[in-house]
Amino acid sequence: MSDDDNHLFRQEMDDVMPLSKPSDRVLLSKVREQSPGLVVRRKAAQQEITQDADGLTSEAYIPMVKPRDVLAFKREGVQNGVYKNLRLGKYTIDSRLDLHRLTVEQARQQMYQFIRDCVKHEIRCALITHGRGENREKPALLKSCTNQWLRQFEEVLAFHSAQPQHGGTGATYVMLRKSEKKRIENLERHHKGRKFRG
To answer: Which residue has the higher pLDDT, 195 or 143?
Structure first.
């Protein structure tokens, strides 16, 4: 740039003022609190992302457990004595599912169908063998999936890691809800023979 150009530039820029001063900045209002409706919509959208068509959580969103962790879950209303008997392996195992050597996708399909079949055939206690996945690239992957998926079936009342003779922490006892038909039969059986006093 020559001296003439420099002088001309300064002359042209002499009366130019900054667009705004720091004190003239526009302050944005704070983000409003989230409305309950917004929270519900976001939660529903998140569930759509994290769950596949069968309603079970996708592998990417499964909280991982350790290979030797004990799995334990009980819905509200399940009596402590009933849960204790499940935990101790005192119920007859009416059906079994082995997930060894399956991919996560295969395991999810198998478990979904297994629980549906148990409900259809009025199975009350089942055993799922998932292994511990020790020395694997992703330790306890199928175990972690089992822990998450079983909670998502309304028909599953409770589950607990098995006793050593049934696979220990590499297997899980599952207690399923009674069908309406069985529940009525039990009520009738317990009330049968009782006499009303007038």
So the answer is: 143
